[in-house]
Design a protein that fits this description.
Blueprint lengths: L7 E3 L18 H14 L4 E4 L12 E2 L2 E4 L1 E4 L2 E4 L16 H14 L3 H29 L4 E4 L6 E5 L2 E5 L10 E6 L2 E6 L3
Parallel strand pairs: 1-2, 2-4, 6-7, 7-9
Antiparallel strand pairs: 3-4, 5-6, 8-9, 10-11
């Protein structure tokens, strides 16, 4: 499946299959519009859909028209993978955020207990877990003989060097946390933010 520019590579969790089982969930009009744009783009350009943990049900489908559905994809020296297969290091990655940090400060005052200190310790633990996760992805990238990895899964957009490998996380587009994506121009990668 040759990749020509322009191409679109989706790095998983585009369709949230976990929500399909909820009774009150419904597919919004914006979701249909995005899906229609992707399928329209796929008429004339390659689209590679690297499935993630929320849309793993698509892994049974290999192709949908010109849309290729894969677990991972290598483009020249770049490994593109969602990253969910390595999440044994991330058992509680979504627990801590700014909201909980501020809440812990207020609760600490009421309870007379230093929740912030405990949270800082937990935050260091979370950073250690994320570093282990990144290290695991980098080792896998080296094993696949690539110089760069593009992943998703942890929803934190970043471009940095880790162990001699360019580590790129596209962040999260659908959740709206960052509305981030990666734009590749020649051999340069850049984090962009969309407004939707």
């Amino acid at each position: 499946f040759p990749v020509t520019i322009p191409a679109l590579v989706l790095v998983g969790d585009i369709i949230d299959g976990f929500k399909f089982t909820k009774k009150k969930w419904k597919w919004h009009e914006e979701c249909w519009q995005i899906l229609e744009m992707v399928l329209s783009f796929a008429k004339d350009h390659p689209v590679i859909y690297v499935s993630g943990n929320h849309d793993a049900f698509l892994r049974r489908v290999k192709r949908w028209g010109r849309l290729l559905i894969v677990k991972e994809f290598i483009d020249n020296d770049t490994l593109i993978i969602h990253g969910d297969k390595f999440d044994k290091h991330l058992p509680w990655m979504d627990v801590v955020g700014d909201f909980f940090y501020e809440l812990s400060y207020e609760l600490g005052i009421i309870l007379g207990f230093n929740l912030n200190g405990h949270l800082k310790k937990s935050s260091r633990q979370i950073l250690n877990v994320l570093e282990k996760y990144e290290d695991t992805l980098v080792k896998y990238t080296k094993k696949r003989k690539c110089k760069r990895i593009i992943s998703g899964h942890i929803h934190h957009p970043i471009i940095k060097m880790v162990g001699g490998i360019e580590y790129i996380n596209c962040g999260s587009f659908i959740k709206g946390e960052h509305c981030s994506y990666i734009l590749q121009t020649d051999n340069t990668y850049e984090i962009k933010h969309a407004t939707i």
